[in-house]
Amino acid sequence: MLLVDIGNTHAHIFDGKKILHCKIEEFQKEYWNKKLFFISVNPFLQKSPQWIDLGSCAYLEGAYETMGIDRKVLALSKENALLVDAGSAITIDLVKNGKWQGGTIMPGIWKCKEALEEISPKLKLKKLEAINLDSLPKKSTKEALSFGIIAPLVEIIKKFSKDVPLFFTGGDGAFLSQFFENATYEEGLIFEGMKKLKERFDANDCSA
Questions:
Q1: What is the DSSP string of 8-57?
Q2: pLDDT of residue 9
Q3: Distance (Å, whole) CA 68 – CA 73
Q4: Which residues pair with 185 in a beta bridge?
Q5: What is the pLDDT of residues 109-129, one digit of tens each?
Q6: Given 5, 70, 93, 172, which residue is catalytic?
Q7: At a CB cut-off of 8 Å and minimum separation 6, what does 34 contact?
């Protein structure tokens, strides 16, 4: 069984054992004639007749009508958790007893970095510095920039993960998870949610 999370530029494919990543064009060419189950945020996606869209099965108690399919499916992966997907954008969603409690969307780490560079070339940051979040930076502009990007994120996440398990996913998820003692990083977290969608599909239970 192939499960595919399709974004705007890349497809993420789970074959039951490992996760593969490829550009949309490559994915369409290689998988066009293969049966698979997918979710997609790509409004321009050309879909093969062999592909089955699980989007209609992604109902989530408490979610608002226009909530993104990727956030819904990620929220379905755990019954009780704060779920942080750290990519180009960072989404933070709280789930308790299987019901979505709220969430936020923020610029990703490197989008923040790019925004600072647009203010001044002196604020260019090639990589984030190792920082101590317990005190304000004193050593360098790079340290100050790193602190400014990371500290607000960490504070928001700490505030809303006090009484639930904390999970990270996405390209910068592993990096962010190191600032928390009891955080878990799972690259394929969204596929846990997709497995639940597949179970609903098999049970003909794709209605809210």
A1: SSEEEEE-SS-EEEEEHHHHHHHHTTS-EEEEE--TT----TTEEE-GGG
A2: 86
A3: 9
A4: 168
A5: 988 988 998 898 888 888 887
A6: 70
A7: 2, 50
- For residue 199, what is the enclosing H or E element? helix 189-202
- Rounded distance between C-alpha atoms, residue 10 and residue 71, angstroms: 17
Active site residue 70: yes
The answer to whether 56 touches 208, Cβ cutoff 8 Å, is no
> pLDDT of 8-29, one tens digit each?
888 999 998 999 999 999 999 9
Q: Which amino acid is at 102?
A: G
Strands (E), the chain: 3-6, 10-14, 19-23, 36-40, 51-53, 81-86, 89-96, 99-107, 166-169, 183-185
Show the low-confidence residues of the chain (pLDDT under 50): none
Domains identified in the chain and CATH numbers: 3-78+191-202 (3.30.420.40), 81-189 (3.30.420.40)
Tell me the C-alpha distance between 76 and 73, whole Å: 5
